[in-house]
Amino acid sequence: MEATTSLLDAAAVGDLVLLDPLTEESLLHTLQERFRRSDIYVGTGPGARGLGWGAGYGVWDGEQGMGSGMGSRIRGLGWGAGYGVWDGEQGRAQDLGWVLSALHPHHPACLQTYIGNVVISVNPYQSLPIYTPEKVQEYHNCNFFAVNPHIYAIADDAYRSLRDRDRDQCILITGESGAGKTEASKLVMSYVAAVCSKGEEVDKVKEQLLQSNPVLEAFGNAKTVRNDNSSRFVSDPGTGVVELRPVGPDPARATQTLMGLEARQGTGTWTPVPQGKYMDVEFDFKGEPLGGVISNYLLEKSRIVRHVKGERNFHIFYQLLAGGSAQLLQQLKLRQDCRHYSYLNRESSGLPGVDDAANFRTMQDAMRVIGFSPAEVTALLEVTAVVLKLGNVQLSSSYQASGMEACSIAEPQELQEICELIGLDPGTLEQALCSRTVKARDETVLTTLSVPQGYYGRDALAKNIYSRLFDWLVNRINTSIQVKPGQQRKVMGVLDIYGFEIFQDNGFEQFIINYCNEKLQQIFILMTLKEEQEEYVREGIQWTPVEFFDNSIICNLIENSKGGILAMLDEECLRPGVVNEDTFLTKLNQLFAAHKHYESKETQNARRVMDASLPPQCFRIHHYAGKVTYNVTGFIEKNNDLLFRDLSQAMWAARHELLRSLFPEGDPQKVSLKLPPTAGFQFKASVATLMKNLYSKNPNYIRCIKPNETKTAMLFMPELVLGQVRYLGLMENVRVRRAGYAFRQLYGPFLERYKMLSPRTWPRWAGGDREGAEVLLAELAFPPEELAFGYTKIFIRSPRTLFDLERRRQERVAQLATLIQKTFRGWRCRTQYQLMRKSQIVISAWFRGHLVRKGGSRTHFPCPSLTPWAGAPGSPKPPGSPRLCPLQQKNKYKQMKRSALIIQAYARGWKSRRLLRELKSQSHRHAAAATIAAYWRGYQVRRAYRRYFRSEASARLANFIYRRLVQKFLVGLRRNLPPLLVMDRTWPPAPYKFLADANQELRSIFYRWKCKKYREQLTPQRRALLQAKLCASELFKDKKTLYSKSLQQPFQGEYLGLTQNPKYQKLHAVAKDKLVMADTVRKVNRASGKTVPRLLLLTTEHLVLADPKAAQPKTVLSLGDIHSISVTRFSDGFLALHLKEVPGEGASLELGGVAGRADPPVSPQTSTGGAKGDFLLISDHLIELVTRLHQTFMDTMAQALPLHIADQFSTRFQKGDVAVTVVESAKAGSGVPVCKKRGSHKMEVLVH
Fold it and tell me: Is the previous residue joined to 763 through a cis bond, with omega within 30 degrees of 0?
């Protein structure tokens, strides 16, 4: 019991996952313990140093990090990335208390946590020294299991997945303003820029992508109540906004450079506008950046004309006034004082820590790097100045003679300066601002505007100019950084968008951003389950369907194209008559009265439900994150985005090229009555594109949380964080992630960590990793339903089983530690004893020698005469033993030593000589054996040669010679290939006769290859022209004399100039399908043989003959009515168009004009065959006309058009058949056929 208590106490401060049961009270207690004991890490999962159990300590051995959670890749990330993480998936209770406790920051940085592959990051509002170049190198190509959790680890994993596994990546970052979304995206992109390869071209691309950021920040960012550098635009999928460094001079502002949905303070309420960005950078197959694409939508245009006190307009206005030189401001007719301009609220521009002048210079330098020309920069600043000065245009009220209120310009000076900047007549702009043209049928009425209406038009003009200018700026940057077409590319995107919103007063802005978050939640759930299912299938584990809340019913409630809220809002905006929010709400109540996720005051009354929290002008939607009440006030106005046509036409009339290009609809020739799309429609289309883009990429998720509203470092407000936890849907994330198996790991790391728990796997396992894991878990006797063995991973269902494994491992580690200590102590004692014993022996030997030497110098013994005796000094001499002096003993010892050395030398010499003789004998034997073997092999080869080779020697030699000659021929041919010109048919001759056939085949192959290369280089237009020429060759070559003359004439197709000649425009309108050929022909009169000019239009479905004077169609034929064509064999342009015979009247449509009366309009769809009979035509482009008619007939009817080339043929007229005879005669003149009628059934055609 004591051991369990100690374990849980360690878990309370070391790992929130190990609490069991997991409740709000226990987690709050844990939070207090962590504040007291700041030296304990919190973490589990791959890459988390800070989980596990050492001998009595709540510490994890980080190199053997253990993974948990449903995702295949588990990430830990946050601002204080070196301080450990916590994986929420291992918790048992799913209440908001443990999530809230897990996010509380501790000393010295805020806590990061993750749920599977969803990263939870809390902004500490202070800079931390953990994003240095050394950290980049540490995490480059790192193993996710062996490093501390860090944003660089996620960036490295995503980049390597993109580069090595060819999978497009997308990182989704959500959170409200101030949560740190932009800084997270900057860190991701800066890491990628640092680790990708270097080079001049690569560095240029990086620099251009980098420099796009200051330009977009200047024109798209503004100071808000929550953020000093808030992005006020949303970037669509495909954006390449790469933010690698802060723009301002203060490095500490990096953590506050946050792009996202910002709050705008209105009448006592917060009114955030949906904002964010999506960054896309494109790479080649090597992982080097190629460029990017930027596309934006929904700029916060309302900020141009008004913003609350304490906020600022877009940065560019303040930067231009503060950083522009005196000459530039004079050129733009601006004053340096911000208080002079109404659109800047006539307030001072000061912002602590921001140097607007330096930022303006940075923006100018960035434009030069991107590739803006000086003229483009000047034009851009001129339009910006026009927007700023429009706010100072004041209107005064007056009354007309009819008593109606009108407005006029109070101070013409500002208007005059604006018109000088854009090259426009002041009267034109004044009329557009103070009046409006209304068109009703064929009448045009000029109505005056009241002062409020005039101000509305002025502000709408300013907003549209700036919004379109920003679009132009984005497109211009795209021109510099876009990837060349045709290159294979990979994409890494970072989506930075605001999270779910529930405020006291929720309007149109909260409605559309919550709709976007519903879609993001839907894609998160579906892709998470898809990833889980794919891993289960990949590992051979049976997939069990997971029950979860499918929010598609909410998405359909909002976005359904026929009956959704957005569709009803658009319908209400376009409905004629009185339109207001009351009718809109009434329609919603009628449509969704029975919908379980929609309610309003009226639907509650119908259900007899009393709810005082739901006002009458509101409706409520049950989102996945909670119920949100929306006030419909302003829905209609904010959804509409209208600009008076007079203002667009006035901007088109300006001589300023850039401003003129921003208003193409102002062209009087292109007036369109079509209403512009509503804001809701645009946002819905953008969300659909975003979802499509996200589905095509591998997702990674980061949820950013703001700990407090005051940007105070290390201040944690539980109520604020609790709301964000709900809005971000973290509880739903945990619930989905915990479904199925909560833990999985590769067999190798799993066996390496737990192999000490079984004597069969400890200390080494000789078999495979999977077999070792199976043996290990079989001995531990866990229930079978708790385990599943995949192909490469082990799956554990519940965290309790994992905790039991950890507990057993802790106990076993303690036993092994005791065994190691015991073994080490025994080894150390034995080693010390042996060292002491050896030292004692050495000391004793030296001491005895010293005594012997000392005794010999002092005592003189008599010289020995017999066998010496080596007794100890002072010991009694044995009886009969002569006593030797020490000198004699020494000499005797030396003599014995010399004798021993001589004997050893003779013995070693004898052994060496014997070994040498044996080696020489062995060497001689080896040499003899080799000689014998060589002779024997030579004999065998010669015998085999005589037996086999001589019979085939001639064939072998001939084949060798042939191969050598062929090789020489091919090498020479490679060096002397003819030019790659299609018309060049030259080819080197074959040097030998036997190569003639091969040479001819190679010539044919080479020529076909040249033709193929030539065809591949052809443009589509050139290819179509050559195909037409080929078709003409098949039809007329060697059959008609005119064909040879047409070879040098290009087929133009359009000889009339329909688009340039206004007279022929109605003819072009008659031919509604695609035009194939337009030419002038001469039609032969059926009765007299005389010819009259006609305009011939050939389309993909019809053939039209029209009067050239009145430009009215005379005959319209469907291609299906044409039966065949007859031409002569001479060089004339005469042809007969044979039509199918249709019984009855009205089968043909040939229109004849009546004098003094306009021909009625003709639709090509009303024509069929010809009742008046066949047509005889004369064309100057006969070959092209018949060819194109043949091709069009083949494409439309899927069959060939019969063509007859003869001197005599029969035609069918209304009064009977007529035989046409073609005669070659000089009377025909200069190539123009002459037709003469010979009776009622014969016609003679004279050709030259």
Answer: yes
Query: Which among 356, 129, 125 is positioned nearest to 253, based on CA atoms?
Result: 125
Token couple for 665: 């609809």
List strand residue ranges (DSSP E) for 706-779, in order: 743-746
195: which residues sit within 8 A by CB, 6+ positions away? 136, 140, 156, 159
Residue 251 pLDDT exceeds 50: no
Q: What is the DSSP letter of 1145?
A: T
Q: How far apart are CA 285 and CA 210, in angstroms?
A: 21
Residue 1105 phi, psi (nearest 5): -115, 125
CA-nearest of 470, 334, 451, 310 to 389 is 334
The response to whether 180 counts as a known ligand-binding position is: yes
pLDDT in tens, 420-445: 999 999 999 999 999 988 776 667 78
Instruction: Judge if the upstream peptide bond of residue 615 is cis by omega within 30 degrees of 0.
Output: no
Residue 1008 and residue 1002: Cα distance in Å, rounded?
Answer: 10
1188, containing H or E segment: helix 1182-1197
Q: Give me the residue label for tokens 């504040």.
A: 35
Cα–Cα distance measured from residue 77 to residue 75, given in angstroms and rounded to the nearest whole number = 6
Handedness of CA 59, 65, 71, 73 (dihedral sign): positive
pLDDT (mean) for 759-780: 91
Q: Does 179 show up as a binding residue in the annotation?
A: yes
Q: What residues are labeled active site?
A: 177-178, 182, 227, 230-231, 499, 501
The verdict on whether residue 1046 carries a ligand-binding annotation is no
DSSP secondary structure code for residue 1200 in this structure: P
> Residue 64: what pLDDT?
35
- Going 833 to 836 to 842 to 846, the CA torsion angle's sign is negative
Structure letter (DSSP) for residue 404: -
Q: Return the closest-CA partner of residue 290 out of 534, 43, 482.
A: 482
> Would you say 178 and 706 are in contact if contact means Cβ atoms under 8 Å apart?
yes
End-to-end Cα separation, the chain, in angstroms: 121
- Whether 1045 has a binding-site annotation, put simply, is no
Per-residue pLDDT reduced to its tens digit, 136-154: 888 888 765 556 667 787 7
| Contact residues for 1136 (Cβ-Cβ < 8 A; gap 6+) | 1125, 1126, 1127, 1174, 1175, 1176, 1177, 1209, 1211, 1220
CA dihedral of residues 1153, 1154, 1158, 1162 (deg, nearest 10): -40
Lowest mean pLDDT among 638-652, 672-686, 1028-1042: 672-686
Which residue in 163, 867, 858, 758 sits closest to 489, CA to CA? 163
CA distances for 1209 relative to 1212, 1215, 1244, angstroms: 10, 17, 11
| Local confidence band at 1043 (pLDDT 50, 70, 90 cut-offs) | confident
Q: Report residue 94 as tokens.
A: 């799913």
Q: What's residue 1023's pLDDT?
A: 86
Q: Is the separation of the CB atoms in 543 and 533 below 8 Å?
A: yes
- Tell whether residue 181 is among the known ligand binding residues: yes
59-62: long-range pairs with CB below 8 Å, 24+: 59/14, 62/146, 62/148
Q: For residue 449, count other CB atoms closer than 10 A to its CB.
A: 20
3-state secondary structure 481-533: HCCCCCCCCEEEEEEEECCCCCCCCECHHHHHHHHHHHHHHHHHHHHHHHHHH
pTM tops 0.85, yes or no: no
Q: Is pLDDT at 1065 greater than 80 in this prediction? A: no
- The pLDDT tens digits of the residues spanning 688-704 come to 888 888 888 888 887 88
- Say how far apart CA 463 and CA 798 lie, in whole Å: 57
Print burial letters for 250-276: b (CB count within 10 Å at least 16), e (below 16): eeebbbbbbbbbbbbbeeeebbbbbbb
Find the helix or strand (DSSP H, E) in which 842 lies. Answer: helix 799-858
- Nearest residue to 371 via CA among 205, 554, 244, 258: 205
